[in-house]
Specification:
5 helices; mainly alpha; 86 residues
C-alpha cells in the first residue's frame, strides 16, 4: 500500500508513533481517516495479490469495497484458484 510505504519513509508525517519504523493498521487508519477494518481488508487484498493468490483484474473489476470483501471471503472459503477467479 502506497500509504504504508509513505509513512515508513516519512515517519514525521505519521499521526501516531511508528513501532519499529513500521506503519501499522492504526497509523494508516488515522492518516487516511478510514475505519481500521477497511485498512485491514485492503492490506489483506494487497498481500494476497503479492502472493499471487488473487487475480488483480478480478478484484479491480468489482464495483464496491463490500463486493471485494465478499470475493476474498469466497476465494478463501472455497479455495478458488487464481485461473478461475475472473
Amino acid at each position: 500500500m502506497v500509504t504504508k510505504q509513505f509513512l515508513e519513509e516519512h515517519p514525521e508525517e505519521s499521526p501516531l508513533q511508528l513501532r519499529g519504523g513500521v506503519a501499522g493498521n492504526e497509523s494508516i487508519s488515522t492518516f487516511l481517516n478510514w475505519p481500521i477494518s477497511r485498512v485491514r481488508f485492503s492490506l489483506e487484498r494487497l498481500k494476497m495479490i503479492e502472493e499471487d493468490r488473487i487475480d488483480r483484474e478480478a478484484i479491480d473489476s468489482l464495483p464496491t469495497e463490500r463486493a471485494a470483501r465478499n470475493f476474498i471471503t469466497s476465494v478463501k472459503e472455497f479455495d478458488i484458484p487464481k485461473e478461475r477467479q475472473k
